[in-house]
Amino acid sequence: MALVLRFIGCGDAFGSGGRFNTCFHLVGERTSLLIDCGASSLIAMKQQGIDRNAIATIVITHFHADHFGGVPFFILDAQFFSKRREPLTIVGPPGLPAWYERVMETAFPGSSQATQKFDLQLVEIAPGTTSAVGEAKISAYQALHGPPDGPCLAVRIECEGRSVAYTGDTEWTPAIVPAAQDADLLIAEAYFREKTVATHLSLAAIEAHLAQLRPKRLILTHMSDDMLGHPDAARFETAEDGKVVVIG
Asked: By C-alpha distance, which of 183, 135, 175 is closest to 156?
């Protein structure tokens, strides 16, 4: 079985282009994980017929609602509707346990203390470190999307002989280079075409560093209306909700 990535959602925080919040599903012979789980992700998963109980790991890049806000819905759906019994691991930046409790209590007060009928592990991963979770080797890099020390990550996931890199939400930083270099697939935020803003990545910045990054395949994601409507977007491969990519 080839390694396959599905863009369950590839939108920004504000639904630009009518797209679901960020959530990518990576599946292989021994792999089934999510990269981010934005607020609308459970809706998108049900629309696309995703087997949620088969997902063993959720990798979170940062704690903004369009990347993390779907976790309470996923957890409660697992508890009450999909009747999950398989273990689930959530991997995320330092502070994950406190942020998990916060997001659960904000969405559904009292839910963070409920006893699940499946084992739940929360694994913190700091920039500059690598964690082995199931079949996947997850490496974290410091993204710049708010305070200089995060907690925001770019990630590189290696499993079944393939590598997938994701910038997360970030302005340009040299940390993107080791995260993405020579990856089989690089998923890169391209929020604007040219405009340089703190905390977000432009297509111009990606172009300026492509010679360093050298991905085998590049797909742009998390695009604002500015980028979605820009004619230059047609020169690059871009994400779409439901798009399926075979890696390798």
From this structure: 183
